[in-house]
Amino acid sequence: MDILTHGLLGGTLAQSCGRKGEARAATTVGFLAALLADADALIRSTTDPLLTLEYHRQFTHSLIFIPVGALLVALLLWPAFNLFKRPLGFKRIYLYAFLGCATSGLLDACTSYGTHLLWPFTGERIAWSIVSIFDPLFTLILGASMLLGLRRHSTLPPRIGLLLAAAYLSAGWFQHQRAEEAMRMIAALRGHEAGKLTVKPTMGNLLLWRSIYRADGLYHVDAVRTGGAVKVYPGETARAFDAARDLPGLSRGSVLYNDIRRFDFFSDGYLALHPEDPGLLGDVRYAMLATSTRPLWGIRLDTQNPQTHAQFETSRRISQEEIVRFTGMLMGAD
């Protein structure tokens, strides 16, 4: 989830549990504490671009890190709060920091990116895929309730905001189930056995979903609109990447081959070569258009230098025609 929404959720939760007269302090601490988890983005290497992908949403987003992160935030903020006439005690700061930190991993797990929520007990990346990484309506609910609570000096608005936010996520879960059920039916009608199928919300809404499943060595990408009636927009297909077939001369002991394995884990196995650039290995889960196989990001396959780490590349290019198509699908056009 975007960093602003993280802060708003942490601040709203802390404010809803604040004592009378501590609303601003609780909101500030909760807001800042919720941002701590994303400090893992600073873990990077100039020679190994994939290091950032491995550590993003890893240990700082795990449940076991919450009390540790809260302690770090409390230690940093306690001296500042003691400068006021009515200082805030360390225990209260720690409580609000704990509430803020507690939201980060769980909120990110609601998206489709994947979060190491149970690190170090398991390396599984949890992704419930019930809300987009950026959803303005969800952010607005939290922001409005938090500001209203500060203005009225009451815990009622943030508590109502949290209930509305929970209802919104529940609606996302319901829409996810509808989209997945529809795509399993479509796959069956096509004569495919979709053992592995992923559906995820497109940017900023709970109406239009992107579906990806694998059958007969191909990834089938479709869009599903879950309005009053479910409507499916057939999309493109991409051949699933196979290192032995697509890169027959690449040594399994090379750095590049190991980077491919690392990127495969990050992408949950959804790998395919870029349809317009065969030298780029992409993550099929993400694209600017719900029906496209042109990936949002991937790694460069430099087979001439197999002992050099693969470069990570992103492409957010979207044409006017694709914007029109996305809008049409979102509005339910035929």
What would you say this structure looks like, in words?
With 334 residues, this protein is α+β, with helices and mostly antiparallel strands. It folds into two domains: 3-172, no CATH class; 190-334, no CATH class. Helices cover 44% and strands 14% of the residues. The chain has ten helices and eight strands. It has helices at 3-16, 23-35, 50-55, 66-81, 90-109, 136-152, 156-189, 243-246, 255-266, 320-331, and strands at 197-201, 208-215, 218-226, 230-239, 271-273, 280-283, 297-300, 312-314. The strands form two sheets. It has a four-stranded antiparallel beta sheet with strand order 1-2-3-4, with helices on one face. The chain has a four-stranded antiparallel beta sheet with strand order 5-6-7-8, covered by helices on one side. A hairpin with a 6-residue loop joins strand 5 (271-273) and strand 6. The mean pLDDT is 94.
Contiguous runs where pLDDT drops below 50 for at least 5 residues: none
User: Whole-number radius of gyration?
Assistant: 22 Å
The average pLDDT is: 94
How many DSSP E strands?
A: 8
Count of discrete domains: 2
Spatial order of the strands forming the largest sheet: 1-2-3-4
